[in-house]
Amino acid sequence: MTTMADWLEGARLRTLPAAVAPVLLGTASAYSLGAASIPRALLAAGVALALQVGVNLANDYSDGVRGTDAVRTGPPRLTGGGVVAPRTVKRAAFLSFGVAAVLGLAMVVISGTWWLLAAGALAVVAAWYYTGGSRPYGYMGLGELFVFVFFGLMATLGTAWTQALAVDGATWLGAAGVGLIACALLMVNNIRDIPTDSQVGKHTLAVRLGDRDARRAFAALVFVPLLLGVAAAAWHPWAALVVLLVPAGLLLVRPVLRGRTGRELIPVLRNTGFYEIAYAAVLGLGLVL
């Protein structure tokens, strides 16, 4: 019998900071512009979380029915592990997308930013075709591009815009930083799965780069956002506080650069999520100050 723990594992809670961080930073940006709104921030968080869970369940379903998850080094999957019927996982994914759509519509109505309807629809389509359809772009090494655009730029800038109807240069830089750390989440996940993904034709960016270069790319994705935060000090001097995260970044990349593999990388995945939240909080504090 399927348990709540099974569904929570399928939702991949370790990835949810990628949904919360851009909303946190976007709201801080709106506050710095004199127009923060808690209700709109909560709606944005609901949209981002529902979309993230939907992506995770859609990925679980699509990889499962393709047989990609037949051999795994990471946590078991609902579909691939035979825990839940594929059609049930698919329905849960589309239910999550539906929740995101309803909350997004409410946010658009309240803020009057109707153009975001098209962006939201595009996000749902991109979420499904990440691993769904006949030619999933996640299998071609383009997953990081999706994550950067939708869980970095769009989520952060959209959150700020729906509250303040404006964004500044620091917000653009911070959005890029959040997006890069979200890419680091995906990268370390795919580094762990290089041996199995390469066997089943899933050519993620990590597979295409190879183990050594993928690990170096992970380190770059962790530290470049700090440089972007320092650059944001041109608009908000306290944004340079992100340099306080250098020790955390060093601790984060150490096991990856030292060649840890398989299940040893699962804590790194979790800690990368915490790092993204910390980045959004520290940079957001810098914007507010």
Short description:
The protein is mainly alpha-helical and 289 residues long. It has twelve helices and no strands.
Structural write-up:
53% of the residues are buried. Helices cover 71% and strands 0% of the residues. The chain is mostly helical and 289 residues long. It has a single domain (4-288), classed as Orthogonal Bundle (Farnesyl Diphosphate Synthase). The protein is globular, with a radius of gyration of 18 Å. Helix 3 runs antiparallel to helix 4 and helix 10 runs antiparallel to helix 11 (246-257).
How is the topology of this model organized?
Blueprint: H1 4-11, H2 17-32, H3 38-66, H4 86-111, H5 116-129, H6 143-164, H7 169-192, H8 194-199, H9 205-209, H10 211-231, H11 246-257, H12 266-288
